[in-house]
UniProtKB/TrEMBL annotation:
<keyword id="KW-0479">Metal-binding</keyword>
<dbReference type="Pfam" id="PF00884">
    <property type="entry name" value="Sulfatase"/>
</dbReference>
<dbReference type="InterPro" id="IPR050738">
    <property type="entry name" value="Sulfatase"/>
</dbReference>
<feature type="domain" description="Sulfatase N-terminal">
    <location>
        <begin position="79"/>
        <end position="493"/>
    </location>
</feature>
<feature type="region of interest" description="Disordered">
    <location>
        <begin position="30"/>
        <end position="68"/>
    </location>
</feature>
<dbReference type="GO" id="GO:0046872">
    <property type="term" value="F:metal ion binding"/>
</dbReference>
<dbReference type="InterPro" id="IPR024607">
    <property type="entry name" value="Sulfatase_CS"/>
</dbReference>
<keyword id="KW-0106">Calcium</keyword>
<feature type="signal peptide">
    <location>
        <begin position="1"/>
        <end position="25"/>
    </location>
</feature>
<dbReference type="InterPro" id="IPR013320">
    <property type="entry name" value="ConA-like_dom_sf"/>
</dbReference>
<feature type="compositionally biased region" description="Low complexity">
    <location>
        <begin position="30"/>
        <end position="41"/>
    </location>
</feature>
<dbReference type="InterPro" id="IPR017850">
    <property type="entry name" value="Alkaline_phosphatase_core_sf"/>
</dbReference>
<dbReference type="InterPro" id="IPR000917">
    <property type="entry name" value="Sulfatase_N"/>
</dbReference>
<keyword id="KW-0732">Signal</keyword>
<feature type="compositionally biased region" description="Basic and acidic residues">
    <location>
        <begin position="51"/>
        <end position="65"/>
    </location>
</feature>
<protein>
    <submittedName>
        <fullName>Arylsulfatase</fullName>
    </submittedName>
</protein>
<dbReference type="GO" id="GO:0016787">
    <property type="term" value="F:hydrolase activity"/>
</dbReference>
Length: 826
């Protein structure tokens, strides 16, 4: 770098200063070397080479000249960016796109900007999110499926590699303040613990600040919450608390703090609340707003949404409403009690959607209150996939039952929670029939990538002064990967060639900024091809045509049905240029076009790491993956240690196990939690209550089994444990093989029997999602109502040991898993 020997007096002068490599150039604003000097980099290499010191160093400071490296800033005029996405909302949910649920915050952005009526997701949570933050297809960045089902193939390992830098990294290194609020479903499940590493956490992917929850979902009353990489615990519920409001409060506080400290620094805020993923848990006052609104039933509501969509112009006038499927009941076939229950489920879902939009509106209003709305690009996407069908045909007050293969509950069990549906006493989801209706006018739901019911999302964009057709509608075909290049073009920043010395995969999306100008309202789409795939349901779009497979089984069976071989799927064909809703299958009339698109799908699949195709669910859930606990059968702990993620805890599912606790009881006695995993909606706990040992097994809030003195065994411990050292053992013999079978548990103290009990069932697949493994106290929720949180152990835990037997599966299950793994390897 050539020497600059004199300072320039005007801070408005720009100087091009060549870097030593000669490959890049920096635009320096202000007096070079002064504390206020800034630079705009060309961004090909991130981070840029550090500038050389260009001052003067002599023996004496009086004869020397300081030189400050310029601060990196985005190009002049680069906007703030507020990127918003809700959860599990299909095209027919928001009022902005014809739904019956008011979404005034989304309306506000639509009126100031544009509505996009052919915008698409990947059909599932974390795959869509990985594509959104990288600008690359979900398989290209390891997210062919959710991380909980990851396998050891490049398209399915749930690792966003360093060759795929996120929008957070790109904008941060170009001078933006970057942050992430809400759901993080893009960190591998085996990296959730305090042990890290943290390169796959938001703060390791370019987001300087993170406040939110890990995984696909969390209880909104007692969330599994992190600030950066630190878990917020012990979590004890606060009166009136709900994460949806807390998230908005935190985002507003962050923006206000940033504005006070550095008002000229552009921000990129990624705002992704959990609404409306299960559990559906809005505040009660929002539920009251929708009382009676869904008594008309799902078919009439669907007709109403369809009429609204035509009136708003968000579907073409010639669109046909796809038929109601035979696999779902018609409203008039239901009993009075069923109608009452299902209407309540929809009221709670609608309340959650409206409540979420309201809190999003508070964040948008905060931007305006800071005086920054006129230079903020706002992108608001309604849902990361279609409406979820994971609530079973009936709905459930506890989603954990469905995740464990319990797809039908007694009507009395459902009605027991009618009044408190959505409260902290439930972890609810709604009937599949509502989900199908909320995806109007399309067929299918979340998880189904072959049809637009799983992938078509309402999306709005505003950018004052740059969008010249406020309130306009855009019909170009686009995909979630197109958001990153749109942001980069708006900011005047190019995608880097290298990041931290690593050559980058090309951005696979295309910018949508060409649609901003009114003159281009009807411009041809710049995306002419896009593949879709999830659980081997496939789709391929090309130049107005769309070929796709017919889903062989519905997603609401949650992997419990037998699936055909990959190559035995039936294919459909649609001319969506004339058939917006995929109503008319024209495969029989156009065999050559179908073959052409099938071949194109395989080409795209090979290009973007989609292979090997895999339609299995259970085998992928139990597939071994990297973990600090993988292969271990003995675990030893001491002292208090709460908040260990479920994935780092010893798993007692479907096997024999022995829990041994060596404790010291002080003078005056002891009580409190020794160890627990899970809480109100499923789990277990070993504790002292009034000084007496108790083991509780919570079978998904359906049944609780207790081992304690005088209950189910000989009453040898009618008195509390005396001061001194004691050994408490709970030994369980599992009645396998096969998942969810029962077994016999024996609780002893110092070798003497306290209680023995045989139970008919255990939790088969998933004991906890957002509850942790807690030693010495209990956080979030309790496994039963006999104690109050945090229920700290008042004695001393000298040693806690788990000894696990092998997981017991049937021969058929073992064959199924082996076959799936071998097929995937082939």
């Amino acid at each position: 770098m050539s020497k600059i020997t004199s300072f320039l007096s005007s801070s408005s002068i720009l100087l091009c200063v060549s870097l030593a490599s000669g490959a890049l150039a920096q635009q320096i604003t202000g007096t070079p070397g002064s504390p206020s000097a800034t630079t705009t980099i060309d961004g090909k290499q991130l981070p840029p080479e550090p500038p050389k010191f260009d001052g003067v160093i002599k023996e004496d400071a009086k004869d020397s000249k300081p030189y400050w490296p310029p601060s990196v800033v985005p190009p002049k005029g680069a906007p703030n960016v507020l990127l918003i996405m809700t959860d599990d909302q299909g095209y027919g949910v928001s009022g902005t796109f014809g739904g019956v649920i008011p979404t005034p915050s989304m309306d506000r952005i639509a009126k100031a900007g544009l509505r996009y009526t052919e915008f698409h997701s990947t059909a599932l949570c974390s795959p869509t999110r990985a594509a959104l933050i990288t600008g690359r297809n979900h398989h290209s960045v390891g997210y062919g499926v959710i991380g909980e089902m990851s396998t050891g193939y490049p398209g399915y390992d749930s690792v966003i590699g360093p060759e795929s830098a996120t929008i957070g990294t790109i904008l941060r290194d170009n001078g933006y303040a970057t942050s992430w609020f809400g759901k993080n479903h893009n960190t591998p499940t085996y990296l959730y613990s305090a042990a890290g590493p943290f390169d796959q956490w938001p703060v390791g992917m370019g987001f300087q600040y993170f406040y939110g929850f890990m995984g696909g979902e969390t209880d909104q009353w007692t969330p599994y919450l992190y600030r950066n990489t630190t878990q917020i615990f012990p979590w004890i519920g606060k009166p009136g608390y709900n994460l949806t409001t807390d998230m908005a409060d935190e985002a507003i506080s962050y923006m206000n703090g940033l504005n006070a400290a550095a008002p000229d620094t552009p921000f990129f805020l990624y705002y992704v609340p959990g609404g409306t993923h299960s559990p559906h848990q809005p505040k009660k006052e929002w539920i009251e707003k929708f009382k009676g609104k869904f008594d008309i039933g799902w078919e009439k509501m669907r007709d109403q949404i369809f009429a609204n969509q035509k009136r708003l112009g968000v579907i073409p006038a010639n669109t046909q409403l796809t038929p109601w499927p035979d696999s779902l009941p018609k409203w008039d076939s239901l009993s009075f009690v069923q109608k009452k229950l299902y209407a309540r489920e929809a009221e709670v879902f609608a309340a959650y959607a409206a409540y979420t939009d309201n809190e999003i509106g508070r964040v948008i209003q905060a931007v305006e209150d800071m005086g920054k709305l006129d230079n903020t690009l706002i992108i608001y996407i309604s849902g990361d996939n279609g409406t979820s069908a994971e609530g079973t045909l009936e709905g459930t007050p506890n989603q954990m039952t469905a995740y464990n293969g319990i797809l039908k509950l007694p009507e009395t069990e459902l009605m027991l929670h009618y009044e408190d549906w959505g409260s902290e006493k439930t972890y609810p989801h709604m009937s599949v029939a509502w989900s199908w209706a909320f995806d109007t006018p399309f067929k299918w739901t979340k998880q189904v990538a072959s049809h637009f019911g799983g992938t078509r999302q309402g999306m709005v964009i505003s950018w004052p002064g740059h969008i010249t057709d406020a309130g306009g509608i855009r019909t170009q075909f686009h995909h979630i990967i197109d958001i990153v290049p749109t942001i980069l073009e708006a900011a005047g920043i190019q995608a880097p060639a290298t990041v931290n010395g690593i050559t980058q995969k090309p951005i696979e999306g295309v910018s949508m900024a060409y649609t901003f100008d009114k003159a281009n309202a009807n411009a041809p789409s710049k995306r002419d091809t896009q593949y879709f795939e999830m659980f081997a349901n496939r789709g391929i779009y090309h130049d107005g045509w769309y070929a796709c497979t017919t889903p062989p089984v519905p997603p609401w069976l949650l992997g419990t049905a037998k699936l055909p071989e990959i190559n035995d799927y039936k294919w459909e064909l649609y001319n969506i240029a004339d058939d917006y809703s995929q109503y008319n299958d024209v495969a029989d009339k156009n065999p050559d076009k179908l073959r052409e698109l099938q071949a194109l799908f395989l080409t795209e699949a090979g290009k973007y790491q989609v292979l090997p195709l895999d339609n299995s669910i259970l085998p992928r859930i139990v597939t071994p993956r990297p973990s600090a606990t993988a292969g271990r059968t003995v675990f030893t702990y001491s002292g208090e240690n709460a908040g260990i993620p479920d994935g780092n805890a010893p798993s007692i599912l479907n096997k024999d196990y022995t829990i041994t606790a060596e404790v010291t009881v002080p003078k005056g006695g002891a009580e409190g939690m020794i160890v627990t995993l899970g809480g109100r909606f499923g789990g277990y706990a070993l504790y002292l209550l009034n000084g007496k040992p108790v083991f509780v097994y919570n079978l998904l809030d359906l049944e609780r089994y207790r081992w304690e003195a005088g209950v189910g065994g000989r009453d040898l411990f009618s008195d509390a444990l005396k001061p001194g050292k004691h050994t408490i053992v709970f030994d369980f013999k599992y009645n396998g093989p096969g998942p969810g079978k029962g077994g016999t548990g024996v609780l002893t103290v110092d070798g003497k029997l306290v209680a023995a009990k045989t139970i008919p069932h255990t939790i088969p697949f998933l004991m906890a999602i957002d509850e942790t493994f807690d030693i010495g106290s209990d956080t979030r929720t309790a496994v039963d109502d006999s104690y109050k949180l945090p229920f700290r152990f008042t004695g001393k835990i000298d040693k806690l040991m788990y000894k696990l037997g092998p997981e017991q599966m049937t021969n058929d299950e073992q064959k199924l898993i082996r076959h799936a793994l071998e097929r995937a390897r082939d």
